[in-house]
Every structure is written in C-alpha cells, then in structure tokens.
Amino acid sequence: MDFLKRLGLEADNAGTTTGNKTMFTKSATRIESHSPIDGKLIGAVYSTTKEEYETVVNTAAEAFKTWRKMPAPQRGEIIRQIGDALREHKEDLGKLVSLEMGKIYQEGLGEVQEMIDICDFAVGLSRQLYGLTMHSERPDHRMYEQYHPLGIVGVISAFNFPVAVWSWNAMIAAVCGDTIIWKPSEKTPLCAVACQNIIKDVLAKNDLPEGIFCMINGDREVGEWMTSDKRVPLISATGSIRMGKQVAQVVAARLGKTLLELGGNNAIIISPQADIEMAVRATVFGAVGTAGQRCTSTRRLIVHESIFDQVKDRLVSIYKNIAIGSPLEEGTLVGPLIDKQAVDMMQSALESLKDAGGELVYGGEVLQGGVYDSGTYVRPAICIAENHYQIVQDETFAPILYLIRYREMEEAMEYHNGVVQGLSSAIFTLNLREAEQFLSHAGSDCGIANVNIGTSGAEIGGAFGGEKETGGGRESGSDSWKIYMRRQTNTINWGSSLPLAQGIRFDV
Ligand code: NAD
C-alpha cells in the first residue's frame, strides 16, 4: 500500500528511536500489528531492549541540556513546523489510524486534525508560559514565580487514540523545554513509528540534537522500566484504571509526578424538558462512535420515566440503520473492535447484564461472514439496566449503552455520580435551572460537564481529564502545561536591610 510507504513504514520497523536515529535489534521481541478490519498483517516493530532503553534515556537526558536552553518561542517554531508536516501527511496518517486501530476514516482524520490543533496551540503557548508576580510583605523586595522545564517526560498511551494522545503531551511538553520518551500501546505500534517518521525531517532540517522526541516499544514490562526510572520526573499515562493504579504506585514510590488519564463511565441525563431529537442524536454519536472505544464514550443514559419509551424506541430505530463495516469505506459509521478479546469482553458483559436482571433491547451480536470474517465486528447494543449492577459500574470498552430510568432530578444526579469513574458527563435540558444545577458544586462530579452536547468529542482548548478513578490528570488546553514544568518562587531583596517574613526579629 502506497500510503504506508509514504509514511516510511516497512514490513519490519525499528521500535526504538531517539528522534533522529533508530535502533533496530532484530533479536528482540517482534510485535506484529494486524488490522482489526480484516486480521491481515500490516507490519511489525521490534520491542525495545534494556540496552536500547538505557541509550534512549541517556540521549534524552543529554538533549534536555540543549533543548531547555533554546528560548521557548524558538521551540514553538519547531512545533509549528511539526504541525505543517502533520498537515502534509494528514490523509495518510488518518488512514493508518483507521487501518491499525479500526476507527472510521473520518475519525482517523479528526485525530490527526487534533494533533495539528495542539501544535498550533503549543506554538501560541510558547510565548505564554507565564508566572505571577506578587507583592512582598517586606520592603524593597520583589517576589514572583517562574516555570522551568522539568526534564524527561514519559508518555504511555492507549490503543484507542494512537496518535493524538502523544501529541497532546509531546507538543506541550516540548514547548515547555522537556524531552519526551513515548511508549505507545503494543496494539498500535505502527501509528507511533509513522509519527516519528513524520517529525524526523523537521528535526534534521533544524539541526536539532537527537533525544528530544524519543520512542520505545513493547508491552507493560517496557512501560515499567520507565515508570520506575528516577531519571523520568513525570509519567503521563493514558489507559485503563487497572494500569493507572499500577503506574501511580510505582511512580509514587520514587516520589515522581504522574498525569493519569484513565477509564470513564460517562452518562447523559435526558430531562423531559430536553430537545429529545438532539439528545438522541448526541447519544448515538457518543455510544457507537469509535465503536464505543473512546474514554469519553456514552455508556449510561439516564432518562426521565415520562420519555423513557420514546427515547428507547427512537434509539432503536436509528441503531437499525447504522452502517457497520470496514472503517475505510465511505458511509460506514461503526468499524470493528480492536481485537477478538474485546469482542469476548463485550459478550461477557451482556451475559452479566442478563444475570443481574437487565434486558438486552437491541443488538449486541457478533457479526459474521463476508466483510465480518475477522470476527471483530459487533452490532452496538442497547440495554435496560439499573445503575447499581456491577456490570454498569464497570467500563466495558465496547458499544453497550445502558438505559436507566429516573423519576426526580435528584435521583438522576445520584445515579450519575454513583460510579467510581469521573471523566465526561452531559445533561440535555432546555430548563436553565436544571442545566445550572448540573454544572453546580452539587452537580456532575466529572472533569468534563456539558449541556446539550454529548460526552465525547472534546476540543483541545480546554483542559481534558477526569476525577475520581479516572485519575485526576489534565492535559491538552487551558493551563495543563503547568504539569510539564517545575514552578519556582523567587524573592529578591534590592534594599540594604534584611527584614524577615512574619516580622520575626533575629538580631545578630
Ligand atoms: P491499557 O491500560 O491496557 O494500556 C494502556 C497503556 O499502558 C499501554 O501502552 C500498555 O502497554 C501500558 N501499560 C499497561 N500496564 C502497564 C504498567 N503496569 N506499567 C506501565 N505501562 C503499562 O489500556 P488500553 O486497552 O490500551 O486503552 C483503553 C483504556 O484507556 C480505557 O480504559 C480507556 O478509557 C482509557 N483511555 C483513557 C483516556 C483518558 O484520557 N482518560 C484516553 C484514552 C483511553
């Protein structure tokens, strides 16, 4: 396939790079990447060896000494060029995302657009890494704070956003003066290799040292080399809650910093005072988009009893017309799940739902024959459930939508917040009081709360992340950059006496 060549991909690819130079140890574990679309082999990468890992960390540490000295706006200029390189490769990279991860091509393009957007954001940010100035309580003193680069930032990413999550972290960290080591998901290694290939020319053209944008590949073990490594002050990890709990403990044991972006269990409340057609359409995008494999996918729909059947019937009629098939085909809205294991997990979730007393209203089956031969395609499911069922409390990374009935808004809010995750949330209502209540301190406990917008599809300008077991991290827009820097408070005495704070007298 020509587009793979244009992205610099071969049948066998080096899994380790310092940005400028690749490392290729054939004896290491070979990670094959099969497309979820048809199970065919796309290519392979070689897992990073311990020796290569050491070289990468040493090179990233060395590069940090040069990179941090470069004025931030000049670093921004490099990111601007990376943004342009991504623009040039948007279609090819979007197609690879679709081929390797299985999301529809439109969403693949959207993911690359998100990378371009974050580059633009980071360029502007490179002139705005502001600290505050305070009034000192002591005469002839000046007090202010400044932000310095942190060092090496380790980025561990999940399969479902195989390129954007890296860029959210890497582009912001880079303008902040940090160097980056990326360990992508072992399920989508080729997307990572392609990104590294795209930026390689920019690094060479600008004569930058090797070690600014590094990549290592491998499974959990390779990730653990980095999480336990004191030379990596910040670990930004995106993935399951299970992974986040492991990473948090390992990094905390060495008193490092973490930025955790973990699982969600996102709900939409539909009030009787909603624009119901709008609510239903937003629900469908949130529940079946990316085949239910977004951290912000809509998993629970909390609907007022007076409109429950109306909403359910409308959803079923839309679900019946959803085109399921190859994500590269025009018109497809739902592609495959990432692998057969994900399909099995969905099937077992539907069994658990029935065991708990819930009802499968529509869909849920594994599709077979023809284009569905890979065994990775499912029909999105609509179920009736109760919020307290264990299976409703857990995040199943598949297109299952649980409909939950409520009578009073207070009850709806209890259901809404009654899960361990706290990522994205939404209410559909045209009633100002209900909307404001949802956004108030007593409302949604999530990191993202929307009114008349679904739970998925955030913009890069805001800080992205969630509360509770979603991990508390914030990345992308707003002031998320601060986590990639160390804050220093400075006080300068330009007078001729030595007054002490709090008026303490200490005469010597
Ligand atoms: P996963 O947890 O299986 O793997 C994520 C990454 O962590 C992979 O690179 C994996 O190799 C690595 N990893 C696993 N255990 C590790 C350990 N102990 N130490 C170091 N690295 C380790 O997740 P997945 O299946 O790839 O992705 C799906 C999950 O990611 C879902 O739960 C989804 O909600 C979540 N997610 C969250 C966000 C967010 O922003 N909150 C975004 C995307 C995905």
Characterization of the model:
It contains 15 helices and 24 strands. It has 508 residues and is α/β, with parallel strands linked by helices. It folds into 2 domains: 279 residues, Aldehyde Dehydrogenase, Chain A, domain 1 (3-Layer(aba) Sandwich); 194 residues, Aldehyde Dehydrogenase, Chain A, domain 2, CATH 3.40.309.10. The strands form 7 sheets. Strands 15-16-17-14-13-19-20 form a 7-stranded mixed β-sheet, sandwiched between helices. Helix 3 packs antiparallel against helix 5. The chain is globular and about 80 Å long. The structure holds nicotinamide-adenine-dinucleotide. Nicotinamide-adenine-dinucleotide binds next to helix 8 and helix 9. The site of nicotinamide-adenine-dinucleotide has 30 residues, from helix 8 and helix 9.
